[in-house]
Amino acid sequence: MIKYSSKLLVAIMCFQAAALLYCVAAGALPAPEYKTRIIAHRGASAYAPENTMASFEKARELGADMIELDIHRTLDGHIVVIHDPDTDRTTGVVNKIRFMKLSDIRKLDAGSWMSEKFKDERIPTLYEVLKWAKDKIQVNIEIKSDGCEKKVVKMVEKLDMTDQVIVSSFHHEYLLKIKELNPEIHTGALVGDINSKADLDKIIEACRPDAVNPRYIAVTRTIVKAAHKRGLAVNVYTVDDPVTMKRLIKYGVDGIITNYPDVLDGILKKYAEKQQKKK
């Protein structure tokens, strides 16, 4: 048996505690290349139709660590990737997802609204996206409507992607359900503004998330530090302005959700170069 001096033992324990705290604060997901995770909003939606395979593939090409997507449940119980509760804005067909079967949704063109270049781009199922993303890129699944929780958990478990996925929602009861079904799946509580430590404590009490995903406007260095002390990662939405990106990186946020993953990637690379020169 190896014997350690008391000072060395304390140092080892401190290191282990710090490592554990970092893992928790980072949402317990694999660390990104840089300290701040690049989260592509509905994919690289500035360059390709949102929530489509073209957008997700573009996000990966542009350096994103994670894609963010939205899900709804169809009439026949399938989980499809689309932001709105209806298909009007992105396909031109006026109908509600909850009243449509998957076979009908698959016929819709979800790309032409942006450009003829993306004609016949389809609304994918969550399973299709997860299968494509496995071992390629992390996935932030935002649940938009009820009845999705069990199927999301089953998909994540079937594909063995627990360490590659975080489930988020403004409906915090959905996140509680996810944790009940599988406590190892990471969750992120979407919120408006967080103005105080008390706001953070209320969120923790409500749904016990691994991360908070607030609107970027009210985020301060103090709020970020307070969240980290409580074991919460901070992923802010939706930031496309480089000046704001730089401010939030300095505050120590764990992730920035953006329509321009390439812009954020470029800023992070410059920060990394500066840090390297200082060494």
Features:
alpha/beta, 279 residues, globular, TIM Barrel, single chain, disordered N terminus, 11 helices
Q: Would you write up a description of this structure?
A:
The chain is α/β, with parallel strands linked by helices and 279 residues long. The protein has a single domain, classed as Phosphatidylinositol (PI) phosphodiesterase (TIM Barrel, Alpha-Beta Barrel), CATH 3.20.20. The protein contains eleven helices and nine strands. The protein has helices spanning 6-25, 53-61, 88-91, 102-105, 126-133, 149-158, 172-181, 197-207, 221-229, 242-251, 261-278, and strands at residues 37-41, 66-73, 79-81, 138-143, 165-169, 186-190, 211-213, 233-236, 255-258. It has an eight-stranded parallel β-barrel with strand order 1-2-4-5-6-7-8-9, surrounded by seven helices. Strand 1 (37-41), helix 2 and strand 2 (66-73) form a beta-alpha-beta unit. Helix 10 (242-251) packs across helix 11 (261-278). Residues 1-27 have low confidence and may be disordered.
